[in-house]
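Task: sequence design from structure.
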């Protein structure tokens, strides 16, 4: 995990929940932390960590920023996968 990934991880765990996190940065963090990402229908992606049930997310459209609900879901997945700042 590089410096950019660490910054994204810290942003995900900040309170109150930030809404200026770019989705591409979150996807990059997933890959850097060992997740397997597969494409679903439309804007869906499936994120799978070893030993953790897969999570499904929708890529934000038309804006590249992630909304609060998705950030909270990403946070829960990362905690479950034992990836915390």
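Answer:
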């Amino acid at each position: 995990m590089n410096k950019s990934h660490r910054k994204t991880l810290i942003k995900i765990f900040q309170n109150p929940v930030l809404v200026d996190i770019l989705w591409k940065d979150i996807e990059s963090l997933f890959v850097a932390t060992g997740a397997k990402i597969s494409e679903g229908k439309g804007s869906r992606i499936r994120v799978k960590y070893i030993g953790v049930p897969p999570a499904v997310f929708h890529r934000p459209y038309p804006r590249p920023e992630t909304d609060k609900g998705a950030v909270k879901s990403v946070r829960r997945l990362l905690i479950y996968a034992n990836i915390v700042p």
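Residues 68-80 form the longest helix (13 residues).
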